[in-house]
From TrEMBL:
Protein name (record): Tetraspanin-4
Classification via InterPro entries: Tetraspanin/Peripherin, Tetraspanin_EC2_sf
Keywords: Glycoprotein, Membrane, Transmembrane, Transmembrane helix
Stretches the record annotates as Disordered: 1-25
Similarity section: Belongs to the tetraspanin (TM4SF) family.
Amino acid sequence: MRRSSTDETPYRRSPSLDSKPDTPPFTSGFHRFSGEFEYKRPPFAFGFHTTKGPQTSTGRCAPGKKYVVFYLDLSFIFLLELRRCRMAEGCMMALRYGMVFFNLLFWLGGCGILGVGVWLSVTQGNFATLSASLPSLSAANLLIAVGTIIMVIGCLGCVGAVKESRPLLLTFFILLLLIFFLEILSIMLFFIYQDEIDQYAQTDLKKGLQLFGTEGNVGLTNAWMIVQTDFRCCGVTNHTDWFEVYNATRVPDSCCLEYSDNCGLDNPGTWWTAPCYERVKDWLNENLVALWIFALCTALTQILGLVFSMTMFCQAVKVETFYA
């Protein structure tokens, strides 16, 4: 037997705030506007809410007159959660693709630097070796070391981002953080001991002059000739530095204003007299802005790599914990 719509039931849909006691049930969420019914969403709530039914003259609720109201807007909850999940998933996808793209560029750049280093090592020997105490500190060896490190780190970051591998992402983060701290420490030590470093560098370069033109030191000889020709200088602190090397009033032909064979034996008035050490320092000071921009871009890239890798690592940990 069908119950009348006017019968009392223990469960009812909650009326909206705009509804009135004499408003029909099906219009509890509507109000009239220009002769039409306009829908107004009731305020969202979740859970069970109990309201009192009609009270008796004694002030107590009549038996069976409590109404349990269940506010649950399933469509609103579903759309809200779906939007949040889609936004989070979109951010993680953008983060992953960004990690892959930048680390792929780093890996390719490392390959290029490594290739240039190998080419210099094969064709030019120990090219640009100016230090006598550090013969392995050549341009070729430095390029090979830097290229290898960049390749390894870029490969770890790229594969870790694609696979979402926690060990690879954590290894990438630790290596990048270690390099970042070493760079900061090196810059701090350089500015603290700048005078001591200058004195040591000049002394070591003067020792390297003693190996100029000797057998097995083709790289050092070529390096000094290129430096003196390009920077138009002679010697470390003065052109007289070469007098101790030759035990005579003589300089290499690369110190001449106009290069010619045995021009270093001619009149000293035809030689460059500016010290090479100061010329190189002046060149660095002139390009100091570009060097700082390069250093800041490098630091910013490393910081972004640290943030992105740790974010992906934490997300991978959360996902694994959730599905565990």
